[in-house]
Amino acid sequence: MGIVISIPKAKAIAHDMRRVARAQEFAPLDIKATIPSEAAAAEAARQAVRVKYAALQADIDAAADVVALKTIVESL
Questions:
Q1: Is residue 54 classed exposed, middle or buried when 0-12, 13-18 and 19+ CB atoms within 10 A define those classes?
Q2: pLDDT tens-digit profile of 33-62?
Q3: Most exposed of 46, 53, 58, 73 (fewest Cβ within 10 Å)?
């Protein structure tokens, strides 16, 4: 008998990894958002990060197998 991988658990791990990557991208933008001269540009960049990770979240949710999840996680 081979190793059995739980797709729901694998998706949960992938979502955790996505959250960590998203937080790392947000960190410098959070600081810039507090500087009045950089706030507008920072918010635009934050919105781009939100869109990127929303798409990744949808991809993770739609993944049918571990290979698809691995491909998504490797793109983080």
A1: exposed
A2: 999 999 999 999 999 999 999 999 999 999
A3: 58
